[in-house]
Amino acid sequence: MAITLSDTAAKHVTNFLTKRGKGIGLRLGVRTSGCSGMAYKLEFVDETAEDDIVFESNGVKVFVDPKSLPYLDGMELDFAREGLNEGFKFNNPNVKDQCGCGESFNV
Fold first, then answer.
1. N or C: which end of the chain has fewer CB within 10 A?
2. Residue 40 confidence (pLDDT)
3. pLDDT score at 13
4. Distance of alpha carbon 58 from alpha carbon 68, whole angstroms
5. CB count, 10 Å around CB of 7?
6. Quick one: how far is CA 105 from the chain centroid?
7. What percent of the chain has pLDDT over 90?
8. 52 Cβ partners below 8 Å, 6+ apart?
């Protein structure tokens, strides 16, 4: 099982953690939400939770809870700028369908 960050996403997270002045990595998870059933959760991590599964990709630690891992296995997190918009892109091979706005998905 693995989760990776593209070079661009890793640089963005590293720069943000540096500006923030604290943090040891990025927490990635899923929650029940949206019109397709599930939505991604992203937050910065200041301390490890007891049940965290930790991956390291391009120098960034990625923390995942055990319940979210089956939905995220094999995913690459990317960061893209398109015109005036910028944000994370979730390249998840487990997604079977997602809503039109891209905020939620199902597997």
1. N
2. 86
3. 96
4. 21
5. 12
6. 14
7. 60
8. 27, 63, 64, 65
pLDDT recorded at residue 94: 78
Summarised one tens digit per residue, pLDDT across range 58-83 is 999 999 999 999 989 999 999 998 88
Phi first, then psi, for residue 77 (nearest 5°) are: -95, 125
Q: How far apart are CA 70 and CA 87, in angstroms?
A: 24
Q: Is-contact 62 56, C-beta < 8 A?
A: yes
Residue 63 tokens, joined: 């923390």
Confidence bin at 95 (pLDDT 50/70/90)? confident
Cα within 13 Å of Cα(38), Cβ side: 19
DSSP-assigned letters across all residues of the chain = ---EE-HHHHHHHHHHHHHHT--SEEEEEEEEETTTEEEEEEEEESS--TT-EEEEETTEEEEE-TTTHHHHTT-EEEEEEETTEEEEEEE-TT-SEE-TTSS-EE-
Q: What is the biggest distance separating any 2 CA atoms in the chain, rounded to whole angstroms?
A: 40
